[in-house]
Amino acid sequence: MDSDTAAVTAVRLDRPEPGIARLTFCRPERMNAADIGFIAEAKQALAEVDADLDIRALVLTGEGRAFCAGLDLTGYGDDDLVEAQGTVPRAMARQKEIADLVARIRGLRVPVIAAVNGATAGVGLSMLCASDIRYAVPGANFTVGYIRAGFSACDMGLSWLLPRIVGAGRAQELMLTGRRFTPAEAQQFGLLADVVEPGALMDRALETARQIMLNAPISVEFTKEGLWKSLEIPSFEAAVEFENRQQIYTAMTEDRSEATESFLAKRAPQYRRR
């Protein structure tokens, strides 16, 4: 990935600082609504981030007045595929390819920091929930979206993600009503780490990325994986066994020794991801 903007249309991938990537949704005229090009380009950008071991954190944000307002209601842009594959088979394939974007955000090697600059609905809300740390401006708003459009609210992984972040009771209320909720509510529910003024949103996201980068790369990657995996582990004992293996692996890395030595010497660590 170049240090400058990547040549894409629906999303933009750049590196605002060494070690930090930023993926910006770039359809402000459509409130960054997702269509087939958006989904494909976003997944390609995530693959580039995952493959670049120099990248230590990813910031997600949007251009204009929206983070991502859901799917593009003027059309997904796959009419030719509907014609070729048939309505129902193509609808299922479309469903899977959109949901796969959410899964890739959740499974990304590095932590994902969502900097929510505006309206967030549908797949935008699922992408937010799949991120690891979430900030938003006071003027943002959040909506499940699917149920108000006549579909099930259980879509794009939301029925798994949202209850684990805000609790089952609150997720039931938000998903069954489909009501719009505010950043202040989202922070109260535990969905947002903080609400940040617009002019400071990106600075806050980048500062969080810098804080993450103070820690050894493999330690961060293992911690992210462990936090998500523990949501699926059925018992305390099994979670501890998983943690034990993480601890022994990281203890044997060169970066673990560097972390201790740099702390004692009161200098910045020089991690090598080894």
Topology:
Layout: E1 11-17, E2 20-25, H1 36-51, E3 57-62, E4 66-68, H2 79-85, H3 87-106, E5 112-116, E6 119-121, H4 123-130, E7 133-136, E8 142-143, H5 158-166, H6 168-177, H7 183-189, E9 194-195, H8 201-212, H9 217-230, H10 236-251, H11 254-265
Helix pairs in contact: 1-3, 2-3, 3-4, 4-5, 5-6, 9-10
Short description, anyone?
It contains 11 helices and 9 strands. It is of the alpha/beta class.
* Strand order within the widest beta sheet: 1-2-3-5-7-9
- Summed over residues and divided by their number, the pLDDT gives a mean of 94
* Computed CA radius of gyration, to the nearest angstrom: 19 Å
Q: What's the number of extended β-strand segments?
A: 9
Instruction: Bin the helical content.
Output: 40-55%
Low-pLDDT segments:
1-7
Query: Could you describe the largest sheet, including whether it forms a barrel?
Result: 6 strands, mixed
Task: Give the key terms.
single chain; 274 residues; 11 helices; alpha/beta; 3-stranded parallel sheet
Structure description:
With 274 residues, this protein is α/β, with parallel strands linked by helices. Helices cover 48% and strands 14% of the residues. A six-stranded mixed beta sheet has the order 1-2-3-5-7-9, sandwiched between helices. The chain has a three-stranded parallel beta sheet with strand order 4-6-8, with helices on one face. Helix 1 (36-51) runs parallel beside helix 3, helix 3 (87-106) packs parallel to helix 4 (123-130) and helix 9 (217-230) packs antiparallel against helix 10. The longest helix has 20 residues, at 87-106. The chain starts with 10 loop residues before the first strand and ends in a 9-residue tail after the last helix. The model is unreliable at 1-7 (pLDDT under 50).
